[in-house]
Amino acid sequence: MEEINIKSLYSKNNYMYRAIIELTTLCNFKCIHCFLEQHTNPGLSTQKLKEIIDELRDFGVYELQFTGGEIFMRKDIMEIIRYARELKFKVSLLTNVSLISDEMIHDLESLYVEIISTTLFSTDNEVNDKITQTNNSATVVMDTIKKIATTDIQTEIKTVLMKDNADAVDNIRKFCTDNNILFLATEGLFPSVSGDESIRNLKMTDKQLCRNIRCLDEIRFGALYSKEKLSTDSICCELHYSLFIDSYGDVYPCNLWFKKIGNITEDKIADIWNCDFLKKIRNTTWRDLTECYKCKNNKYCIRCSGIVDNIKGNYLLSDPYACRTSWARSKVNKQST
Amino acid sequence: MYNIAFATHISWQILPDQHFGFVYNIKEKKYYALEDTELVVWNIISQHKEISLNSLIDTVATYYCINSEDIEHDISEFIDSLFEIGVITKNGRDKYKKSI
Fold first, then answer.
1. Do A2 and B81 touch (CB under 8 A)?
2. What are A21's strand-pairing partners?
3. Predicted ipTM of the assembly
4. Angle, CA of A21, A25 and A29, to the nearest 5°
5. What do you get for the CA distance between the two ends of chain A, in Å?
6. Which residue from B minimizes the CA distance to A114?
7. What is the edge-to-edge ordering of all strands in the sheet holding A250-252?
8. pLDDT tens sequence across A31-44
9. Which residues of A173-188 are buried (b: 16+ CB within 10 A; e: fewer)?
10. A306 partner at 20 to 30 Å CA-CA among A92, A136, A152, B34?
11. Using CA atoms, how far apart are residues A156 and A180, in angstroms rounded to an integer?
């Protein structure tokens, strides 16, 4: 039997490959850069979630990514994961891992959860705690993810670099290499759900950004990011295969694009997936981005249309935050040639 | 004679048009396509916690309105290939010799 590329098969045929489901906004960490504005919603009931998972299964969805808040704040989390795995979904978990016990690790391994992804901002408690607003957070995360990494579950650490942890990459990367954990690092800070950009004040200074951007891109892409944008390139490939469902059941194009396109408890998933707004943004290409398409730095740009829509109300415009990162790449590239 | 079941370390799905499916072996990180008769067989297995090879052959034969003897060899061969790629169990054991 031949191996195949599944995601591109789904994208080409306009089928929904993945649902990112926010199970709760409750969280035991209080990260300063978190774009969620409230952490009080426990989420939909167990029964309702199972009904949603059933509907997604019938619709042909293959991957479920569970996120929060902190998903292990839910007492029924293992029941939900077990249910999804019994239906043979590919299951990924986004969690701060601080609430995962040894027994849970054993159960998660038996359930063949695909990947557990967590965040770490520094291997130094003092620095990490400043960001998570939680004591000993680095130790707890590192100890737990190390244990999980000894199982067959793939593990991943994601790091967001800000001014307070701008020098953290090397130590985290070493920790990941030593423990066979995937590592992703980025400079991306996202405005809050309501479009409040004050979170972005935590960003690295220009000097820190220029110092780090090559390393960040090498971790993520293998080299400093540079891609010529064709006029026909889609503004975002994820729009073609994924949706985000929040803890109220509201559905969005992705977890960074806060334009509600339906509610999964009221609308059929097929109707949401084929709604006019999604068709419109899927057909939007770089040629439609009047400010960005002709920008001299566009090949260094990774802009998010969802974020731009949140802050400016028009997803075709530029994002000054992304412009700055493109500028940094351009500068670093010039310095090396 | 043996009983067939899905291995626990797989994920799979059938695309909405029902003409194509795939199975993923999580242990080996490989995807495999399922089409035509393979899909019919896979669907039948999916409806049972466990199914004997004979029952599977009879059910497929009924589906196609043909004699079981005419497809016995092909179905057995297909099941063997599914076992070799590690996505099913025979009598509760997978190719990694792990008992479920």
1. no
2. A66, A245
3. 0.92
4. 120
5. 47
6. B26
7. A182-186, A154-160, A115-119, A90-94, A63-67, A18-22, A242-245, A250-252, A262-263
8. 999 999 899 999 99
9. bebbeebebebebebb
10. A92
11. 9
Element (H, E) at A262: strand A262-263
Question: Would you state the pLDDT for residue A336?
Answer: 81
Q: How many CA atoms, within 13 angstroms, populate the side-chain half-sphere of residue A27? A: 24
Distance CA A323, CA A310 (A): 16
Nearest to B32 among A1, A9, A10 (CB): A1
In angstroms, rounded to a whole number, what is the distance separating the alpha carbons of residues A226 and A328?
A: 12
Report chain A residues whose CB lies below 8 A from the CB of B12: 88
Q: Which of A1, A9, A91 sits opposite B85 (nearest CB)?
A: A1
The pair of structure tokens assigned to B5 is: 């079941």
Summarize pLDDT for A56-106 with one digit per residue, the tens. Answer: 999 999 999 999 999 999 999 999 999 999 999 999 999 999 999 999 999
Tokens, residue B23: 């199975």
Residues from chain B that touch A88, judged by Cβ atoms under 8 A, are: 6, 10-13
Q: How far apart are CA A101 and CA A108, in angstroms?
A: 10
Shortest Cα distance, chain B CAs vs residue A152, angstroms: 8
Residue appearing with tokens 């942890």: A165
Say if CB A162 and CB A203 are below 8 A apart.
yes
Q: How confident is the model at residue B17 (pLDDT cuts 50, 70, 90)?
A: confident
User: Is A61 near chain B, with CB under 8 Å?
Assistant: yes
Asked if the Cβ–Cβ distance from A62 to B13 is below 8 Å, we say yes
Q: Is the pLDDT of residue A267 over 50?
A: yes
CB atoms within 10 A of CB A237: 13
The rounded distance, in Å, linking the Cα atoms of B43 and A293 is 47
Domains belonging to chain B, first-starting first, are 3-90 (1.10.10)
Residues 6+ apart with CB under 8 A from A147: A102, A105
Q: How far apart (Å, rounded) are the C-alpha atoms in residues A261 and A277?
A: 7
- Of A64, A66, A120, whose CA–CA distance to A93 is shortest? A66
